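Per reviewer request, we include the raw input and output of the structure prediction for the construct analysed in the revised manuscript.
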Amino acid sequence: MMNTGLIIRRLRESESLSQAELAASLGITRVYLSQLENGKKQGSLDVLREIAGRFDVPLSLLLAWNESNDESKVYRDLKILFSQLLEAKIKNARTAS
């Protein structure tokens, strides 16, 4: 089952950001971000809102991951999200060149 920390890590990696880079852009420490990604800390609503805004995803994506979710729906939604992120990244790269 996916958890919020893994979602954050995948979002970060989708933009090839280091933990230090993402943490700096969010105004949090790299250690705290690592703890979020590894499930050792639960992010505050403010931090999760910042992360969602940074990656232009709905806050509900980060809040809705719990054991009551249907796993097949979770994976389907994730696949769609990362597909859209990749398409947007490719489109932006083409526009920039």
